[in-house]
Amino acid sequence: MGVKERIAYLRGLIDGSGFCADDPQAKSAWDSLLAICSDLADKVEMLEAGQAETEEYLEAIDCDLADLEDVLFGLDDDTYDGDIVEMICPECNEEIFFEEDFLYDSDVEIACPSCGAVVYATGDCAGKAHTNGASLEDIEDEEDDDM
Which of 4, 70, 8 is CA-nearest to residue 40? Predict the structure, then answer.
């Protein structure tokens, strides 16, 4: 039951039960309170409609902005100029892909997006990594095996 229906139901209960029938001031106060509630319900409906319209408009702007970025920068989401490294998570056997540049950065920790296990760590991160974290040599050996 919506807010307006609940207000109408309450108004019917008050009118039908004779609640405050002997006191005109109490009846007037309840009528005023219910009128305020009805006005508030109308305002909430208007706000919800406006919010839905704004969300739709923002989605359209986001799509247009993505198209503009593609035109200006000549990039697609699927386009990457560098090499991609593929690994298998030792915990869940899920394929993991990341940019090769991460292999040569210091203090990098790459975790499996599925299970969260650390699959590669360098620098200070290597000391914190789980025992299943791969080293640069392991990855290079794995890449050689793939060729």
Answer: 4
What's the predicted TM-score (pTM) here?
0.42
∠ Cα 23 26 29 (to 5°): 150
| Cβ(106)–Cβ(123) below 8 Å | yes
Amino acid letter at 126?
A: A
Tens-place pLDDT, residues 63-115: 999 888 888 877 655 555 667 888 889 889 988 888 888 888 778 888 888 88
| Token digits of residue 75 | 């990039």
CA dist 64 and 138 (Å) reads: 43
Q: At what angle do helices 3-17 and 24-73 cross, to 10 degrees?
A: 180
C-alpha count within 13 angstroms, C-beta hemisphere, residue 47: 6
124 closest CA partner among 105, 100, 138: 105
Distance CA 147, CA 145 (A): 5
The structural domains of the chain, with segments of one domain joined by +, span 3-73, 84-146
